[in-house]
Amino acid sequence: MLDDRSRQVLFAVIQCYIDSPGPVGSRVVTKRFSFGLSPATIRNIMSDLEEMGFLRQPHTSAGRVPTDLGYRYYVDAIKEDRQTVNRDLILELGRQLEMMRRDINSFLDEAARMLSSLSHYIGITMSPNTSTATLSRVELIRYRGNRLAVILFTDEGLIQNKIISVDPDISASNLRRVAEYINEEFAGLTLDEIRQRVIDEMTRERVLCDRLISEAMKICSGIFYAAPGNLYISGISEMLSLPDFCDIRRIKELLKTMEDRHLIVKLLDKLSISSGTQVFIGSENPLDEMKGFSLVASTYKEGNRPIGAIGIIGPTRMNYLQAISIVDMTANYITEILSYR
Q1: Residues 272-328: pLDDT tens digits?
Q2: What is the extent of the structural domain holding 217?
Q3: What is the pTM (predicted TM-score) of this model?
């Protein structure tokens, strides 16, 4: 734990560095903040903070910059006593998203743009993972030969189209009966629950004796498989304009990370089982490719069940207070919208 003076100086350095990326000296802190401390005293406190790992000195004659540990201490503090973002921005977000609420994919695409616009970092949103989506109904349409077009509707408003292989001899009337069976047996269950039911059913000998139900199980195994949700990313060009990306190495690092969408989906998918807003600062990120950045993310829910995730990706020199408020508010808004779909 830090004493009050050390805490004040650490937060002052972080705020100065967020506002203007460059080593922060004791005189800058003295001029900007009225602590009643001399530059020499502040310099000594900054030296102590460096020894404790909260600050680092890029060059011998330079000031200090925050470390990941320093940011973590700061973030934990502001999460307990954070402010909301400008109310006009909240109203604007609400107006923009309200127009998109009927189409979940357009809605989340616009949400990513709004996250970026509000934060000036990269906004990301992921549509509900089909593992946690709840089946409303399926429709089966003969495509050609042994190919079957499947239209899957979920309670969350997702519509998925799939092409699967089936027995070419199955008749149109039997396909209707299969669709009726699936809808009667599985409507209202999550796709994870359906997958488990299908596995259980296919191991029962009585099912294998019923050709139609056996065919239904085979069709189900092709329909209900785990697949991550769609990912929407906005604001890469805006992020590249930040002074944190003034050298080509950092630009390549960012572009490589953003191009590999599988990595981001994997990370957000891990978060989708959690609740509340989470902050991963630099080296804290569970994926090596993200360790040069910070992620502020949260889940949105259907009822009490997390079904998707949103977030902001930025440099470790991030305005965490604003980012946390934006993500928290947006996640709550999407949860509210989905509850009235």
Answers
A1: 666 678 999 999 988 888 888 999 999 988 777 777 889 999 999 999 999 998 998
A2: 135-223
A3: 0.72
CB 330 within 8 A of CB 111: yes
For 64-82, write each residue's pLDDT tens digit.
999 999 999 999 888 766 5
Q: Which residues have C-beta within 8 Å of that of residue 293, sequence separation ≥ 6?
A: 254, 257, 282, 285, 313, 314, 315, 316
What single-letter DSSP state applies at residue 283? G
Q: Give the Cβ contact number of residue 137 at 10 Å.
A: 16
- Is residue 223 exposed (0-12), middle (13-18) or buried (19+ Cβ within 10 Å)? buried
Report in angstroms the alpha-carbon separations of 1 from 43, 54, 254, 277, 330.
19, 12, 34, 23, 32
Looking at the structure, do residues 200 and 280 belong to the same domain, yes or no?
Answer: no
What CATH number did the domain enclosing 181 receive?
3.30.390
The CATH number assigned to the domain holding 10 equals 1.10.10.10
Q: How far is CA 97 from the centre of its chain?
A: 17
C-beta neighbour count of 140 within 10 angstroms = 22
Q: Determine the residue type at 41.
A: T
Q: Any bridge partners for residue 301, and if so which?
A: 306
